[in-house]
């Protein structure tokens, strides 16, 4: 039986890890909310961002957190270009085609990374990777504390963009009624690309937060996106608030499961909660009822 102090530390650290999971899920749910499709290239884009953080550290000597100033705009540009000039034209607006195009793009990116970097894992050595923050008697991982703060700031910035800017209003208009939005002069293709750009920028932030404590190889993103898919469905497809709350919940559940069942079975709790929520509320915690 674990002491209450150990349990509290595990749950708080899980909450902070869940914030980074939520960042990965935010981009996925935003794209679904506007385009109503699942972006299968999301994991490959996360891997690209993580390699970008590693290159900024190894070639330019940039701290992973500082590298956000390069990686976030670079990922936004990549997301915009991919949707505007590859995914959109290749799919010709058909949802089924978009799924296939994003899946094909994912395979191309993964194999391109494999050719460039081989299958070796890359890590970043920082002074603060194993530092802790003392919160009374609790010891919290410093990188996870930073991750929680950055995730909350990113969520607030995303909320401001979606609710207080013209671009955000256009995104919400296209998500609600694409034809009506085009009739009032909104460039739907541009808004699709902007949505991809915002989702990819979130991945840039997530990559910078992950690299001090994780590794990267060409297939790394797939593991995180599997959890992100679970978070998106759990929180409600297309719900930004659901992605944030779902991510925090999943982080706590995973940490608790790892504590009681061991690291190898840490994710069993995630899927048990996932199944329970779908049985009780199939639309997810914050999804709109049909």
TrEMBL record:
One of its GO terms (molecular function) is transmembrane transporter activity. Its main location: membrane. It comes from Albimonas donghaensis. It is a multi-pass membrane protein. GO terms for biological process: amino acid transport. The keyword Zinc does not apply. The keyword Ion transport does not apply. This is Amino acid/amide ABC transporter membrane protein 1, HAAT family. Pfam families: BPD_transp_2.
